[in-house]
Amino acid sequence: MTRLLLVEDDPDLGLALRVLFTRAGYEVVTAADGQTALKLLFARRPALMVLDLVLPGLDGWEVLDRTRDLTDLPVLILSGRTSPAERVRGLRSGADDYLCKPFDHLELLARVEALLRRSTPEQWRGDYVEAGLRLVPERRSAVWQGHETRLSAIEYRLLEVLVRNRGRVVTTEQLLDLVWDEPAGAGRERVKFAVLRLRRKLAVGQGGDPLESVRGLGYRYRGEA
Fold it and tell me: Pfam families, alphabetically (predicted)?
């Protein structure tokens, strides 16, 4: 049974969400504060975290930062903070999705299912090698110019799509469809910040940035300069 970590300090909402996820076939472990969430992250090894931002003690931002330092676990922020700035901050900080309260239960379940589907290792059978780059599916990593970097599920799929279309522009809409399984719309900003995180990780090596932004269109993998 797939295990979810639900981090929510509102007891009524936490109970309702636990019932919702349990009825959908998930095992649910809950935390009402940030410290407990991080302890459960290590102790119970969930497949996905649903994270509120307003928590006692360590807030959701701190939990997200510490989670991202240690694991590529899919994280869905579920928050009453609805401003575009908060959503952008969440995606830029490494969240895989951001859903505002109040929310539709079916939409929440659909988003959780999509994140879990994209994080399944079987999606990356086989490898890909080209000049300067090797994708390592069993570790979900990329070796760029001799430097290996672990990637999140989204980052790996994003890089794989761009690499397999080397030299061709892949539009934002195509990336949403191929990487996020979503059409264009509310999720467009996710592409921008996922590419930004991917570029930062690849830039740790000495080979320069292999990705190119094509203004008004999308992105292109150009490989070695």
Answer: Response_reg, Trans_reg_C
